[in-house]
Design goal:
By secondary structure, the protein is an alpha+beta fold. Helices cover 30% and strands 33% of the residues. The chain contains seven helices and nine strands. Strands 5, 6, 7, 8 and 9 form a five-stranded antiparallel beta sheet that branches. This is acetolactate synthase. Belongs to the acetolactate synthase small subunit family.
Length: 211
């Protein structure tokens, strides 16, 4: 990476002011849950900067990754509200320094510009871009990184006929975590249940889900 490449700087903890928080929700895959979670944010007039849903390491359990910029106290209250949803098993919230996160960005540029100007090729190498599609009229590149890095490449490509740009939602893994799967196994080993009831893990609170 050259000295010209922008580097991501993690935000410092600020329990009074606003900062980026990654909210991780483990929940059963049920129709309508995403809408109900979104309503919790909209009622409080809190903007969601990015939202990603995907299967988790546990069969039948989905993982929601939500990025917002708010104070610690507001995020704490949001997490408690989300956990009240019947399908939700557990909610975690972390600052940028507590997670490993990435975003995927795609860039569509003129193939003629790319092939004729060596400067553009150097820029793409500098930012670790990979060719996804190459056609006569355009080429699509992908870059994985932080928002500052993907935004910087947008500005660098603007003079070279940048046709289109899109960035994905954040995906993140909590640094100091043994994994949600391990927590469930520990609970089942300590207190095996005769029959599963809806949301049986929530009322176990700190005993099960402390990471």
């Amino acid at each position: 990476m050259s000295n010209d490449t922008i580097k991501h700087i993690e935000s410092q903890p600020d329990y009074e002011g606003k900062q980026d928080f990654t909210i991780t929700v483990y929940a059963e895959d049920r129709v309508g849950l995403l809408n109900r979670i979104s309503i919790i944010f909209s009622k409080r007039k809190i903007n969601i900067d990015s939202l990603n849903t995907s299967p988790s390491e546990i069969a039948g359990i989905h993982r929601f990754t939500i990025l917002i910029n708010e104070s610690h106290e507001v995020v704490r209250k949001l997490a408690r509200q989300i956990e009240k949803q019947v399908e939700v098993l557990k909610v975690y919230f972390n600052t940028d320094s507590e997670v490993i996160w990435q975003e995927l960005a795609l860039y569509k540029v003129s193939t003629e510009e790319i092939t004729e100007k060596v400067t553009v090729e150097r820029l793409l190498r500098q930012y670790g871009a990979t060719a996804v599609v190459i056609r006569k009229d355009y080429t699509v590149f992908s870059v994985t990184g932080h928002k500052e890095e993907t935004d910087a490449l947008v500005k660098a490509l603007e003079p070279y006929e940048l046709i289109e740009f899109v960035r994905s939602a954040r995906v993140a893994i909590i640094k100091d975590s043994a994994g949600f799967h391990e927590k469930l196994k520990e609970f089942e080993a300590d207190e095996p249940g005769e029959e599963r009831i809806e949301n049986e893990f929530l009322d176990k609170g700190d005993k099960i889900f402390t990471m």
